[in-house]
């Protein structure tokens, strides 16, 4: 078992760390509390895209269309590109790498929001899902959040992806390949000390990371799979502070990094200052 560090009580936390090979719980804090998870639900979009690529109902080199009603900016790169008609595969890669909002909406429109909403329930999850398109403004008449989830279910998603159990080994592998490009190592993954732009292969201390993050003004969420020479951990660390009355990102990020340090030590068997043969 892993003893979690103190977590700021002003935030709502949902945390679970699993042994990715056995499924045993290594540590947890309110793992069944449902949090708003910002971009984390995009994992279920990537799962649906991967499934359709594998069954042939989507073509990897087909070009996406972006309807005007779903144009958004903020997170990502596609909205800044001159040529936005990228392929389905590359749109999914942009979602995995930079949580691209415009690529997300294009792929959601291509697959159908209802179909993507159904992915999490089909996998057996009741309190975790992608719920809506990404919006420039979330008015009262729209769904309450783009995605939500619990650490119990999100850590299980990552464990099952690592085991090749999300619909098929091929589907799982496609999703993990897209997530390998994630450039956001500012949260739990900050403790892994990886090159944010180049960690597809084993990097510092033999670590291999596949993860997805989510950020909004009142939330930070990091879910992932970290493999090292001494083991593997599937993790989900979520924090919300919507009703706290103050911005808690600094203490929340400190707590997430502290959890990440425990994960790194567990899968490497090394202290932080022992780079070994890295």
From TrEMBL:
Pfam families, sorted? Beta-lactamase2 (PF13354)
Does this entry carry the keyword Oxidoreductase?
no
Q: Which key words tag this protein in UniProt?
A: Hydrolase
Q: Which GO MF term does the entry hold, naming one?
A: hydrolase activity
Region forming the signal peptide: none
Looking at the keywords, is Hydrolase present?
A: yes
- The chain positions of domain Beta-lactamase class A catalytic read 15-237
Give the residues annotated as coiled coil.
none
InterPro entries in the cross-refs? Beta-lactam/transpept-like, Beta-lactam_cat, Beta-lactam_class-A
Q: Which PANTHER family match?
A: BETA-LACTAMASE (PTHR35333), BETA-LACTAMASE-TYPE TRANSPEPTIDASE FOLD CONTAINING PROTEIN (PTHR35333:SF3)
User: What's the protein here called?
Assistant: Class A beta-lactamase-related serine hydrolase
